[in-house]
Amino acid sequence: MFRFLSFCILALFLAGCAITPKFTVTTNENDKFADKSVLEVHSYNNRLSDKSICGGTHIDEQGLYIGNIAYIKDNKIIRNSIVASYSANAQAGGWIQGMTGCYKQGFQPIIKIIFVADGKNITVNMTPGKSDLHFTNYNNISGGFGGQFFEASIGDLSFNDLELIANANVLDIKVVGGTNSQTFEQHELEKAFKTNLKTFIADVKSRL
Known about the structure:
With 208 residues, this protein is α+β, with helices and mostly antiparallel strands. It contains three helices and twelve strands. Strands 1, 2, 3, 4, 5, 6, 9 and 10 form an eight-stranded antiparallel beta sheet that branches. A four-stranded antiparallel beta sheet has the order 8-7-11-12, covered by helices on one side. The protein is globular.
């Protein structure tokens, strides 16, 4: 499980580097090292919202993404998980003292996600996974470095609850972090967010 969690987190991070991330659903069927008794279905690149925890909206591909993992054995779902990943710009050094940018406003870490689906409260406790801060470019003018901050957490919820979330007429979400929290109301969600969840659910059901 931890190997595939690491893979999922890495894939989400790499997807965050893409200009226009495309929602995808994959499995471990072609992984020769996988436990073939358990089928894993993964989804990637489902951005929750373009609302930024730093204020305003994201004009790039960064922000908060929700991925899904369903574990299937003997044609039954034995576990269902979500992976929440957040990426933001970071800057340090030069004329700027300390660390600036959205990095300071990360959730650090993501510890809980609360979904309110048509009035029903669905709370998912999250376990922090990988976090990373790396610098990729140098600013000749300021003498500082620019880069990206990334964090991810994983948690479990029932497949039935995932369906309630995907099919909700009104869905509000709160992401609770150790340092910061952020709410995302129905009108602030990406238009494709629930549609992508439904695509993942349909793919999983087709394998049962």
